Prior knowledge:
The chain is of the alpha+beta class. It has helices at 15-21, 30-33, 37-47, 96-131, 138-170, 182-199, 219-236, 288-293, 300-310, and strands spanning 2-5, 10-13, 52-59, 65-73, 86-94, 178-180, 203-208, 215-217, 242-251, 258-266, 314-320, 324-332. It has three domains: 2-94, PAS domain (Beta-Lactamase), CATH 3.30.450; 96-174, Orthogonal Bundle (Helix Hairpins); 176-342, 2-Layer Sandwich (Heat Shock Protein 90). The protein is built from nine helices and twelve strands. The radius of gyration is 29 Å and the shape is extended. It is found in: Cell membrane.
Amino acid sequence: MILVNRGREITAVNRMAREIVGVGEVxxxxxLTMRHPRVLAAVEAVLTxxxxxxxxxxxxxxxxxxxxxxxxxxxxxxxxHSQAAAAAVLVLRDETRAKRAEQTRADFVAxxxxxxxxxxxxxxxxxxxxxxxASDDAHARERFLGLMRAEAxxxxxxxxxxxxxxxxEINEHVPPKDAVAIGAILQxxxxxxxxxxxxxxxxxxxxxxxxxxxxxxxGDQLTQVFHNLVDNAVKYARTGTVVRLVAxxxxxxxxxxxxxxxxxxxxxxxxxxxxxxxxxxRFYRADAGRSRRLGGTGLGLAIVKHIVNRHRGxxxxxxxxxxxxxxxxxxxxxxxxxxxxx
Length: 342
Ligand code: ADP
């Protein structure tokens, strides 16, 4: 909030405004600090008769921030005739965060629509070919139906992942309450994905400490976390390699107490360091062509990150080109309900 007199000199600022106009600016012309033409026009308007003016403005320094600006004449201020008294008030509301959230939402809808549109366009193309030129061609029909099934399944996977993501986001602030045996979850994930691994000549090796503590968790969600990580390892690692799942008891670090760390280690080509910080963003892919060819939705790691956040855990990614990638999830242990024998 900034007050100016009828000579446009600053008469008072609150603490937040001081960050924008700077300390020690009281007594000086507002135009020396805020050169934004729309701000000055709004002040001019209220000082010369308008009662209020509202604007949206972007201030470039120190980093670009978007504000709504409300300028108002201070009504009935008899003292406003004196040069020293405040004659107008400027209220600036920082909307940067809200704007960014709005942009993220808009990008997400655009990305999701685009991801759904591609298989849909392919399906429409196949249907038209089957109705037209290939209507009497049994061989083409069979081939196209196979391709159509693959495209439809891609859409189904995408819709399933979008629904998972929205479910996780809805309850992200509600911490899970059950004591969960992580070893059993890892075993079931390894069993489920071993067939897919075998198809690539790969194996999944589980190495879990005996007497791992229970973790405070949601069994279905944790299954999804490790399913997504192991599925990626199988998808992106080289044929014939081993995916290692290593679960250990750990001091949780930041939180202090006991925890369980689970590392999913693959011997793939690795991921270039430049991608690592953005890997858990929705639809972010290090290699988009490869992901799509392998049936990826680009949402797996975003789902992992949100579930881990809900569990007050951490996710770290280490990767070395040509050597492989390790995803490590650390989860806090459930408060002393004993340990599991796994
Ligand atoms: P996708 O459905 O594309 O696999 P994810 O969100 O699961 O989406 O992963 C995002 C991207 O991270 C992938 O497209 C891939 O480029 C990269 N990635 C994930 N896991 C691995 C891995 N184990 N090895 C190499 N790259 C990986």
